[in-house]
Amino acid sequence: xxxxxxxxxxxxxxxxxxxxxxxxxxxxxxxxxxxxxxxxxxxxxxxxxxxxxxxxxxxxxxxxxxxxxxxxxxxxxxxxxxxxxxxxxxxxxxxxxxxxxxxxxxxxxxxxxxxxxxxxxxxxxxxxxxxxxxxxxxxxxxxxxxxxxxxxxxxxxxxxxxxxxxxxxxxxxxxxxxxxxxxxxxxxxxxxxxxxxxxxxxxxxxxxxxxxxxx
Length: 215
Ligand SMILES: [Fe+2]
Ligand SMILES: [Fe+2]
What we know:
This protein has 215 residues and is an all-alpha fold. The protein is 74% helix and 0% strand.
């Protein structure tokens, strides 16, 4: 079946984008791969350890909500069908991360961020505008974003309670996937952003991290 995003009809693209947004926010996407924490023993954690792990996994979950929105927005405005397809495929793989983080939050008896709709809408707009700048910048933006995600996963692996082996297993697999997404985006023709631009993106990402740890 043809994806309407490739038909050139803007109204179909918008319908597909809204559909993806509703599915992302309602948690209806299922993982296509087994969760990396499958078979990993859950160790007993104190209430404060669980609350801290949940705060970090809530940040990771909102990051995956943003990833869906960015890829969707970038794919909608990408110039070439090859790049549209590449971004759409990467977005599909990110759905595994979304589902894994969501189920880990439930295991930790916590909830997803209340700010998800706001972050989805704003990330979608950022993605759509980035796509309009041109495919090489859009792919460069993917690499710069994934670079930041890898850094923040490393920070979370340092900060998670030692005993939280299940969250750790998820984050380690996500780190591997995100690193590959960034490398593939450059290999596909993306331009690497300057360190200065990446630093600005890091500051903006910090706003998301701080606001969703608790809310
Ligand atoms: Fe991801
Ligand atoms: Fe990724």
